[in-house]
Amino acid sequence: MTTETAPPAAKRVPSERTHHGDTVVDEYAWLAAKDDPETIAYLTAENAYTDTRTAHLAELRTTLFEETRQRTRETDLSVPTRKGGHWYYTRTVEGQQYGVHCRRAVRDGEVEPPVSADGAPLDGEEVLLDGNLLAEGHDFFSLGAFDVSPDGRWLAYSTDFSGDERFTLRVKDLTTGELLPDEVPDTFYGTAWSTDASVLFYVTVDDAWRPNRVWRHTVGSAAADDVVVHQEDDERFWVGVELTRSEKFILIDIHSKVTSEVLVIPAGNPTGAPAVIAPRRQGVEYAVEHHGHRFLILHNDGAEDFALAFTSADAPGDWVPVIEHTPGTRLEAVDAFANHLVVSLRTDGLTGLRVLPVGSDDSYDIDFPEPLYSVGLDANPEYRTGQVRLRYSSLVTPDSVYDYDLVTRQMVLRKQKPVLPGPDGRPYDPAEYEQHRDWALADDGTRVPISLVCRVGTPRDGSAPCELYGYGSYEASMDPWFSVARLSLLDRGVVFAVAHTRGGGELGRRWYDQGKMLAKKNTFTDFVACARHLVKAGWTASDRLVARGASAGGLLMGAVANLAPDAFTGIVAQVPFVDALTSILDPSLPLTVTEWEEWGNPLEDPEVYAYMKSYTPYENVTAVDYPAILAVTSLNDTRVLYSEPAKWIARLRAVAPGGDYLLKTEMGAGHGGPSGRYDAWREEAFINAWILDRIGRA
């Protein structure tokens, strides 16, 4: 890398805070002032410095972007999904950033979803919403709600043009194509229609960005006339709203990290008062699905990995078991159809689907051929159906859409995401790649799974470079997924690996519990154990190993940089939660109070304070030889504030000045980064070029 340009100097303005007798000095707290011109000037200077430091990679970035583009069918059409009298689908068009949302009427005798040649519009299609037209004149565009009313007449949709996840909600008349005067600003995700489509429910957030209110809006009326249906005053909880697949009930979901409660309103009586399915009890989580005369209850009451029960839909009360708790088999969701239930689950680190025919004890699990894969239900809006749509992929199998017959057990591939020939002109062949499941041994003797993919013939003598990805929080599982952009790394001899650390959900609820609160450090030591194992097993060497993670996975990146800087040659931290203690101490910040049941409450508990202070990356920067670090963030991120990585990089430069640290800030995006697909490809090309440079494959 070139080194002619010095990084921008971050001024030091000491700020002190004292908790539990401990005084902490924060020299870079001023960077949290988003509206201060000095902050913007500093971030802009950091971007300029990063541009200069990576200028030699410009040609490689262009090459990687073009490889992704070349392998992608840019004009394409999703498999249409039937709902009522229409097929719904999304099209993409070459050269356009966003999808075009469409529908087409079902024709007489039409059972199979219609197809088109090379992603062309279907004959007779109706364009419901064109994201490219909506995004005109904006650097960022995101669609929040996209909800067609049960009668197919209205479309409720919401838009965000800054990345802060506050949406403006509108209603479109699909008969005339006209927008109604209804317009509701500052809404959140989640909408639900009444049966007759006269009423629309939606969600708003409080000043801390916590979804706390469910509203009722009468179509055709002013937003000022809307009524609050439920307001959640306990700051640990957030709310959501949805219409059941049966279209019989509006569900208001109320959750904290460890407790939940569900309220129900008959969709045919939208002005009725919400009724409680089961009052909240601390530590008991449950979710509700309507099925005929009953509500299905997926819960953890005396069932660590969850069980399935039901209660009366007319008079909710006792829970009658349907699937008893089985330790090691984590039940994650239940989807109800008229004659079948489909349970999403995971066991032995893999996802799965179990079918329960109504009125029969002949339940069965659907089989899949690969040793590593991800499977789950796709959009299935029809309640009365004998087949379900599912989505399948693996590290070598592109995203695949299947229709599965619940009676005959036949599975039909409707579409596999096309992977067009790469730079060598050869079509993609999964047989040229191999995937593996390996296991590392953590410090406490726990076996930690690792998923790997590489080209066939990749040497196992330590000479291959490797990217190791990790997350490990919120019970989120990093199940194997296919990536077109990743092929550019694999074809350059890179091994891609995922460390399934504790704190994730890969091995059930206990796996999650062993990586949160006062056991959080297991996430970090597990990741380091995986890195050491990859070297010991010959997959790579530490001077050819790059770690990568995002959001809470960015916290993981910062923690392992402090814990084992010698284990990596580079670290990529995207929207990283690296100033965790400062954020969790401030209940006025977005989402802080809701996070206390994930990390602990350092404001009230001295033990939690001391524990978090011992691992939070920003607090623990020391004068050691760090690997090269690339931090990527977004100015309008409301989940992890841009100031966290900005402060972290500034402190790294001050305390360990010999290192190579870069900060890249998207000045018009949110937590997910750039919104357009081409912009997202360019950002991925930027990161992959940096990785290839670090491992000597640029």
Task: Tell me what the structure shows.
By secondary structure, the chain is an alpha+beta fold. 19% of the residues lie in helices and 34% in strands. The chain contains 12 helices and 38 strands. The strands form 8 sheets. An 8-stranded mixed beta sheet has the order 31-32-34-33-35-36-37-38, with helices on both faces. β21 and β22 form a beta hairpin. α2 packs across α4, α2 crosses α12 and α6 packs across α7. It is globular and about 70 Å long. The protein starts with 14 loop residues before the first strand and ends with a helix. The relative contact order is 0.10. Belongs to the peptidase S9A family. Keywords: Hydrolase, Protease, Serine protease.
